[in-house]
Design brief:
Methane Monooxygenase Hydroxylase, Chain G, domain 1; 2 domains; four-stranded antiparallel β-sheet; 4 strands; about 10% strand; elongated
Length: about 250
């Protein structure tokens, strides 16, 4: 969400509070009565409300937050103590994580995302991460569609390398929220020809991710090798390694 949009939302909210005070009081009166007369029922409804607000906040952070990311779980260590003591990945494990995160990075660059970073540092159960800034000129459903392609790129890389396990589970959790965002808007992304269903969105975006990695296989290999050597790459270095990518 741009600065202007946020300003409009904030100002609009303030105006509602200023000029509809009586309506707000009328709305809160039955809630207060419920709390005073039926505290157990109020607690139950309050818990549901808190869960709904928390989910709404998480979706907003996912869609409008300043940083979007994909996380690859690392089964070696869990917890804060393990995060400080676990050895970094080596050998086949190192290459696997590098290839997975490189796929996300290539997708981010090809899709026009900015401020892309990638690393394969082990932190808790995370074996790597790619972050990016979304294209603010795109609508919410278009940003979410690009994010789906970005998210599936890692899974495609895993499957092509013969890794058919739960390695991309955390990516898939984010993918569900991205699909729900598109479906909730009721707007069909420009590159999506099918219906707004989970199955159709998976098919559409995963197919695009497969094609993207096929077309930019050289860039994928270069970034994979760069991550193995340096463990972390900033936006400039990623674009240097992927210079064959057509933006």
């Amino acid at each position: 969400m741009g600065v202007v949009s946020r300003f409009v939302v904030i100002v609009g909210g303030c105006l509602v509070l200023m000029f509809n005070t009586e309506s707000i009081i009328e709305l809160l009166e039955p809630l207060w009565t419920l709390v005073m007369t039926q505290p157990e029922a109020a607690l139950k409804h309050g818990a549901v409300l808190v869960m709904a607000i928390s989910m709404f906040w998480f979706v907003c952070r996912l869609v409008f937050g300043p940083r979007h990311y994909a996380v690859h779980p690392r089964p070696i260590a869990t917890g804060a103590f393990a995060a400080r003591t676990a050895d970094p990945p080596v050998g086949p494990e190192l290459e696997r994580f590098a290839r997975h995160e490189a796929a996300h990075a290539v997708a981010a660059i090809v899709l026009g995302m900015t401020a892309v970073t990638a690393d394969i540092h082990a932190v808790g159960d995370r074996g790597g991460r790619v972050t990016y800034e979304p294209d603010e000129d795109l609508t919410m459903h278009e940003q979410s569609f690009d994010a789906l392609v970005f998210g599936f790129a890692g899974q495609v890389a895993d499957h092509r390398a013969g890794h058919f396990d739960q390695g991309s589970m955390s990516d898939m959790e984010l993918q569900q929220l991205r699909m729900m965002t598109i479906i909730a808007t009721g707007q069909r992304p420009e590159r999506h020809a099918g219906p707004l269903t989970v199955e159709a969105l998976i098919e559409s975006t995963r197919t695009e991710a497969e094609l993207l990695l096929t077309q930019h296989a050289v860039a994928h290999e270069r970034i994979t090798e760069g991550l193995i050597v340096d463990r972390a790459l900033n936006d400039q270095r990623l674009r240097e390694l992927a210079e064959s990518v057509n933006h």
